[in-house]
């Protein structure tokens, strides 16, 4: 078996630590990916005091590698402020063939009780406290006040699912969906509401855009990178609940706005295909390897010095 030049570690749990230890013992260059804001989740589960220890754990993990890849410039700056070293931006992409407006299903819409002109709002993600679900429900209520025919479909599962279903029986709980089934659910809606404040990126935002939905999100992560307010989506200032709710409500009785946003959102994602992203990922690995070579390798051999 040929010796690898770089080991990329994509998980921060026990398996990730094992991979780090093995690569370091073999003196192989290591890159990692920062996928989830675990330190931000703690306050949503009554464990705010654990935020600093979680940050310390993540920092220690990633700083044992020669480089850490993150999806946005904002996250890079945040992690560097927290003491993470050698952080590089490698954006993410979307499968524009899988997620497409062409997968729209009138049959699925009818099963939701939606007619041709019914506005269907969609949420895709974990049904959990860190996803700002109260803002989602508040936005839906505001939309209904302007257009009583609006429907809200929730795709996903999590600890809040039973509570939401009991308290708001009018919600359409679609459960977990994957593959073509998930893509069909996206394309069969009209608007995408994503009020989460704890994303490192938010792949669902790109999936919704590729599916031709009018996206309402906070101005950060994937939405900040790919959406232009009023042109390809609607962006609320980060953490401004009132603005988010008002933007969602605006879609309820402005069909021309929703139609324009939907068309432009799809067009925007056509430059975010995975082929481009994988090319950037490969360049990131070469960058880490070159830096490792210049700083740590001896005698032009692929062996890291201690």
Shape designation? elongated
Number of strands: 10
The DSSP helix count reads 13
Helix content: 40-55%
Structural class: alpha/beta
The termini sit apart by: 24 Å
Low-pLDDT runs of 5+ residues are 297-306
Query: What is the residue-mean pLDDT, rounded to a whole number?
Result: 89
CATH architecture title of the largest domain: 3-Layer(aba) Sandwich
Largest sheet, in brief, is: 6 strands, parallel
Strand content: 5-15%
Instruction: Provide the CATH top-level class of the largest domain.
Output: Alpha Beta
Number of domains: 2
SSE string, helices as H and strands as E: EHEHHEHEHEHEHEHEHEHEHHH
Tell me the strand order in the biggest sheet.
7-6-5-8-9-10
**Gyration radius, to the nearest Å?**
21 Å
The CATH superfamily title of the largest domain: Glycogen Phosphorylase B
Query: What do we call the CATH topology of the largest domain?
Result: Rossmann fold
How would you sum up this structure, described in words?
45% of the residues lie in helices and 14% in strands. The chain has 306 residues and is α/β, with parallel strands linked by helices. It folds into two domains: 6-93 and 273-296, Rossmann fold; 101-269, 3-Layer(aba) Sandwich (Rossmann fold). The strands form two sheets. The chain has a six-stranded parallel sheet with strand order 7-6-5-8-9-10, sandwiched between helices. A four-stranded parallel sheet has the order 1-2-3-4, sandwiched between helices. The model is unreliable at 297-306 (pLDDT under 50).
């Amino acid at each position: 078996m040929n010796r690898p030049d770089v080991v990329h570690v994509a998980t921060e749990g026990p398996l990730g630590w094992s991979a780090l230890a093995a690569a370091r013992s073999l003196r192989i260059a290591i890159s990692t990916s920062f996928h989830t804001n675990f330190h931000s989740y703690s306050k949503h589960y009554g464990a705010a005091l654990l935020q600093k220890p979680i940050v310390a754990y993540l920092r220690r993990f990633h700083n044992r590698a020669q480089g850490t890849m993150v999806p946005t410039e904002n996250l890079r700056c945040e992690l560097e402020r927290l003491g993470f070293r050698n952080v590089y931006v490698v954006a993410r992409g979307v499968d524009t063939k899988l997620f497409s407006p062409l997968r729209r299903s009138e049959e699925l819409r009818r099963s939701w009780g939606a007619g041709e002109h019914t506005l269907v709002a969609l949420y895709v993600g974990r049904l959990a406290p860190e996803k700002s679900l109260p803002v989602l429900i508040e936005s839906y209520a505001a939309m209904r006040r302007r257009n009583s025919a609006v429907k809200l479909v929730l795709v996903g599962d999590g600890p809040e699912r039973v509570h939401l279903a009991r308290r708001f029986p009018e919600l359409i709980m679609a459960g977990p969906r994957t593959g073509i089934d998930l893509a069909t659910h996206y394309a069969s809606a009209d608007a995408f509401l994503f009020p989460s404040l704890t994303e490192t990126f938010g792949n669902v935002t790109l999936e919704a855009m590729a599916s031709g939905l009018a996206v309402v999100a906070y101005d950060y992560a994937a939405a900040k990178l790919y959406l232009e307010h009023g042109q390809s989506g609607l962006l609320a200032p980060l953490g401004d609940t009132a603005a988010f709710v008002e933007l969602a409500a605006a879609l309820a009785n402005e069909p021309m706005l929703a139609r324009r946003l939907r068309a432009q959102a799809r067009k925007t994602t056509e430059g975010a295909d995975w082929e481009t992203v994988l090319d950037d990922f490969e360049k990131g690995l070469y960058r880490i390897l070159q830096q490792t070579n210049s700083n740590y390798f001896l005698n032009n051999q692929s062996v890291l010095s201690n």
